[in-house]
Amino acid sequence: MSKPLKQIHLAAHFPGVNNTTVWSDPKAGSHIEFSSFAHFARTAERAKFDFLFLAEGLRLREQGGKIYDLDVVGRPDTFTVLAALAAVTEHLGLTGTINSTFNEPYEVARQFASLDHLSGGRSAWNVVTSWDAFTGENFRRGGFLPQDERYSRAKEFLATTGELFDSWRGDEIVADPATGTFLSDAKAGSFVHSGQHFDINGQFDVPRSPQGRPVVFQAGDSEEGREFAASSADAIFSRYATLKEGQAFYADVKRRLAAYGRTPDQLKILPAATFVLGDTDAEAEELARDVRRRQVSGATAIKHLEFVWNRDLSAYDPEGPLPDIDPDVQDHHIAEGRAQVRMYRDPLATAREWRELAAANQWSIRELVIHTGNRQTFVGSPATVAGAIDELVQADASDGFILVPHLTPGGLDAFADQVVPLLQERGVFRTEYEGPTLRHHLGLAHPDDVRNEREAS
């Protein structure tokens, strides 16, 4: 008997962070005007996507003491934008990154519960931590937490917000819908929490939201991140969008769920993915090369190399050879607030590998960065891209993808009009939304139903 087809989950990330977006393209628009967010969200909803994802940065990043000129200059507040988008969409999920290192459980729970009410049950929270003191300088608790404490705080933060959401459980709170007065003796919103990181008690003032709790996303590839996702998240962002690596990540994270009394369908795995479409595969390949060259200017290439070398390389020609000097491996990093610095855990080994690649292919600094940087995930005609997405999902390399177009705000339009219909024809993507909440879109049970099932068993 053949295996039933998996339904593909698709989402859209509003681009702009790092050098993903091609700002030089005449079709590129604003990253701060609401019209850009509205266009992007309406396109995603027209295509029946699960959700829109909005990242958040708590400080503009610097390199060499100057604002990184390829970063987003001006980043509006996540909650404000998502609340505004709730008014111009009806079905699309609204996902935002909110930091657990520099916020407090009560305020975050209150904001997400409010957004869930405003949107009719479409909110989601991407829980992240922050490792750098550079960002911490913007907050009263300046500084940073070691990795084990970051995840310890994040787990308690998430558990505490859950207690706040659950303080208005529907089976315990009974009210007269006409007057709003309580008919039971239950004290709505009452909570007490005492732990390592938080010691709070009081009353939560936002009633139970349509989803019970917002959907929880987590992004992290470390051992701690994978375990955190398996224990507490509804979905995890993955950096693995290829078959072999994707299948290994998928199997590893899904395997961990059983230890927490969870089943594989209770956690969705969604890698980020870029795409370039053309009328033919050859045209798309040519366009992809052009996009990569526009994403990686000479200045960008030098800045990227500085992430590894941890030195000022501004005197080097981006069209010339790599530096002979070795990376500086001291703890201070030239790129303040750049998470990428931590991606290269052995800069000396990375430098050796890159020199070998450059020598073997006669690449300049810029050519090396173009070839070793983030490549487009899906390149080809609409039929080719639809087939590639379907193949990876059916092979359990992912449950779907979060698409990151290289143009703002119209970069999603062609995918919505040309690829989505082909996935629908294959029977692997919805033609209409199945329900009103984001949990419906993702095939996730209501938290109360999960709790009741556990108690019954």
Q: Treating each run of at least 4 consecutive H or I residues as one helix, how many helices? A: 15
SSE series = EHEEEHEHEHHEEEHEHEEHHEHHEHEHHH
Distance between the termini: 31 Å
Give the total of beta strands. Answer: 15
Going by CATH, the homologous superfamily of the largest domain would be: Luciferase-like domain
CATH class of the largest domain: Alpha Beta
Largest sheet, spatial ordering of strands:
1-2-5-6-9-10-11-15
CATH third-tier fold name of the largest domain: TIM Barrel
The biggest sheet amounts to: 8 strands, parallel, barrel
Poorly predicted regions are 171-175, 182-186, 338-343
CATH architecture of the largest domain: Alpha-Beta Barrel
Shape: globular
Give your account of this protein's structure:
The protein is 39% helix and 14% strand. It is of the alpha/beta class. It folds into two domains: 9-168 and 201-279 and 376-456, Luciferase-like domain (TIM Barrel); 297-372, no CATH class. Strands 1-2-5-6-9-10-11-15 form an eight-stranded parallel beta barrel, surrounded by six helices. The chain is globular, with a radius of gyration of 23 Å. The two termini are 31 Å apart. Belongs to the NtaA/SnaA/DszA monooxygenase family. Its EC number is 1.14.-.-.
Features:
457 residues, alpha/beta, TIM Barrel, eight-stranded parallel beta barrel, three-stranded antiparallel beta sheet, 15 helices, 15 strands, 39% helix
Fold blueprint:
Blueprint: E1 9-13, H1 34-46, E2 51-54, E3 62-63, E4 66-67, H2 78-86, E5 93-99, H3 105-119, E6 123-128, H4 133-136, H5 147-166, E7 190-194, E8 199-203, E9 215-219, H6 223-232, E10 235-238, H7 243-256, E11 268-273, E12 275-277, H8 281-295, H9 298-309, E13 335-336, H10 347-361, H11 365-372, E14 378-380, H12 382-394, E15 400-403, H13 413-425, H14 438-442, H15 447-456
Parallel strand pairs: 1-2, 1-15, 2-5, 5-6, 6-9, 9-10, 10-11, 11-15, 12-14
Antiparallel strand pairs: 3-4, 3-13, 7-8
InterPro entries: Diverse_substr_monoxygenases (IPR051260), Luciferase-like_dom (IPR011251), Luciferase-like_sf (IPR036661), NTA_MOA (IPR016215)
Pfam families: Bac_luciferase
Protein name: NtaA/DmoA family FMN-dependent monooxygenase
